[in-house]
From TrEMBL:
Organism: Sedimentisphaera cyanobacteriorum
Domain DUF2023: residue ranges: 28-126
Name of the featured protein: DUF2023 domain-containing protein
Secretion signal span: none
């Protein structure tokens, strides 16, 4: 777990603006918390500034809700909270940075977070295409990456099979 500081690290911001920022961050968290408690979500990902992390942890621990906290740069954190099994999957993926998730991991996380399934399917296909992560499974059930040059050659062959 990362260390959280109860005091603000934004000394250059006026106290009034700082209060509104903290209040707004907690307001969004409380909305996520409400959705989780009502059963609308099994897993929540809340991104916030580190300085409100302490209040979030207190609320989650008071209600015996499990959570994971991952750093997001120097000033922010990602707080996952909710169902134990969902959190265990996030923990086992073991990547602190969401941008390092594979297309499959990203898809699983999106579904667990309750995102629209069709949009997750579109996102998955887009990530696979842009990251060039196409794979083939051979007869021994082993997965291998296909180089981009091979993919381009394979497409006309596959189209020829469809046409007869």
């Amino acid at each position: 777990m990362i260390a959280l500081n109860e005091t603000s690290k934004f000394a250059s911001v006026s106290p009034d603006l700082e209060k509104r920022r903290i209040s707004g961050g907690m307001e969004v968290f409380l909305h996520h918390f409400y959705e989780y408690k009502k059963g609308l979500r099994n897993l929540v990902l809340h991104t916030c500034y580190r300085d409100i992390g302490y209040g979030i942890i207190c609320k989650l621990e008071h209600h015996n809700i499990e959570y994971l906290i991952y750093p997001l740069g120097k000033k922010r954190i990602n707080v996952f909270f909710g169902n134990t099994d969902c959190l265990e999957i996030v923990r086992r993926i073991g990547k602190l940075c969401l941008s390092r998730y594979t297309a499959e991991e990203d898809f699983i996380l999106g579904i667990m977070l309750g995102y629209d399934r069709c949009q997750q399917c579109e996102r998955y296909l887009r990530l696979k295409q842009t990251r060039n992560e196409k794979r083939v499974i051979n007869h021994n059930n082993e997965s291998k990456k296909i180089p981009a040059s091979t993919q381009a050659v394979s497409q006309p062959v596959a189209q020829g099979l469809k046409g007869g």
